[in-house]
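Appendix B, record 7
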Amino acid sequence: MRWFAYNGDADGICSMVQWGLVHGIEGKRITGVKRDIELLRKVFAKEGDELVVMDISLARNASLASDIERNGVKIQWFDHHLAGSYKGNIETYIDNSPSVCTAIIVQEYLGIKSNWSQVALHGDGLSDVSTMPNLKELGELLNYNGYGKDISDLHFHPDTLLLSCMQAKTPEMFLETKEFEILKKGFAKDIEKSESISLRDGAYILPNEAWARRVVGVFAHRINSESSGPHVIAIEKEGSYQISLRGQSGIGELCAMFGGGGRETAGGIDDLPKEDMAALMNEVDTRRDK
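Structure tokens (predicted):
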């Protein structure tokens, strides 16, 4: 049996679409909101099974990956986040270069050029790398749908969007679907609410409400496009912050200092105690505009 574990954001979905259009996606698919980085806990593969992982950090899932591998499962891992120092025999395709997303890695692996990889670049805030600016809105909307506390915050379950993208076959055809229209209208309402958010002690602080949890990713990418950063975007929770960081380099490593993770230009910290916010801002300030 083949298992799939994939991030529910634009990059994860677009990576799966590319794979699926070539090899199919029959099997057991595991996904969730973007910040659910422990999806492998839901993989119950047995000896002789195969697991394909898309856009999930190996560094943050090394122990779970090791357990699955010891069960006799063949694993292929495609990702652009920090890889860590995994010692097993996983077949890895990992590149954390700042201008690469997982869908680009999958495209190279398959050897078939796909516009879905361009959608993923936009979703990951890499529009300056994409050669297709006309797909920026779709990339942002697919990414926007992946953000939330849990599935109930989202407009669509990520697997529903995956199947819709597969049925459409091309990004251009997906633009004609009802799913695209629903995402477009929902995003317009949410981003309008974010216009009142301004800097507070060096960070953008959003309320812990569904609209803010949905829009935080695109909001962060747009802030990052205006200057080099690093930029701190936080959702205020009781006793802690959910942090999104964006910048030009070293962001994943900076997040890892506070229990989070990410890649070269983007990362997050799920629960930063409020008393640690000053220490984070001190680290950020030392890196700003240098």
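Remarks on this record: The radius of gyration is 18 Å. The first strand starts at residue 2 and ends at 6.
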